[in-house]
Amino acid sequence: MSIINNAILSIQVGVEDYLSKDGRRKYSAVRNIYAGLLLLYKEKLKQLSPKNDKELLIKARLKPIPNKGGEVDFIGLGKKTVDIRQIKDRFKDFGVTVDWKKFDRIKELRNDLEHYYTEEAPEAVLEILAKSCVLIQEFVSGELSKEPKILLGNECWQSLLDIEEVYDSYKKECMSTLDELIWPYEVVRRSLTDLECPNCSSELIKFKGPETEYPNIDLICHSCEKLFQYQDIMIEHLNKIYFADSYIAATQGGEYPIEECVQCGFDTFIIEDNLCVNCGYQHKYAKCVECGSDMGLIAEGIMQPKICDHCEYIESMMYKD
To answer: Do 50 and 130 meet the contact criterion of CB atoms below 8 Å apart?
Structure first.
């Protein structure tokens, strides 16, 4: 059976597993649809392979050999096929577009599901399948140039769309409970859509109550029913939001986006906003009385100059004249 047919069959069986009344097949649905997604990626590598060896780019090991024309050819070695890292590398080399952030999110959820899955937490499976549906649609249409409904069959594709719609409704319901609360800092409010359960990584987080005083707001995961407070996940949440900026600062130099707050001691002080989102502390800066420019942090117990160096220089030149 061809790779593309294997991919179609795997996704179709996954949907059937999910729709089954047997709760034990829910996790099987995740395995099958995830496998089907990877097979779609391998099908693209097959399409990109040379005509004389259509499985070349699927092979994990490639060996360069000289040909009769004095140039270099490659041959695939062994039966092992590419892993996710190699797929990412080869797609990058050939300009194939995949939203790897979404894919890595699905992979993270799948891995967490292996550790805590029970038949009483079907929303965990629902979330993975809904996110997989988006990736399948984007890749099949954009890179394989096919209609998902035609490729997978109308019944299978409609079921995936229904799953996505149900998940979206859960997501909106959860967000509506968070929107009703008072979040004192805009940077926190903007990031609420990226909240994750500390137990299963699900994004289906909603307000539980009764505690509503920031940052000790009571939350619950709709997937695994884990109870926690926002303060419990605040630092990890901020690190994920500012991960890219922190990585650039660590590898290329520059200022880190977050640092330890001098007042509460938590790593929750956001440099750009001059704000600790845990305790609300803000640095106070001395202002030049002449031009209004910042003159640095105000240190307690130390007398600050009233004018900046530039204004002081201009003033000295005026008196000199």
So the answer is: no
Residues sharing a CB contact under 8 Å with residue 139, sequence separation 6 or more, in sequence order: 37, 40, 41, 44, 98
Query: Residue 295's domain spans which residues?
Result: 285-320
Q: Are 27 and 52 part of one and the same domain?
A: yes
> Given 189, 224, 241, which residue is the final one in a domain?
241
Total number of domains constituting the chain: 4
Statement to judge: residues 84 and 154 lie in one domain = yes
Give the global pTM: 0.75
Question: How far, CA to CA in Å, does 13 sit from each of 28, 91, 126, 215, 218?
Answer: 9, 27, 15, 44, 39
pLDDT at 262: 87
Unique residue bearing structure tokens 């600062």 = 249
* Helix, strand, coil % in the chain, rounded to nearest 5: 50, 15, 35
Cα-based torsion angle of the residue sequence 165, 166, 172, 173 in order, rounded to the nearest 10 degrees: 160
pLDDT tens, residue by residue, 5-25? 999 999 999 999 999 988 778
Cα–Cα distance for residue pair 22/19, rounded to 1 Å: 9
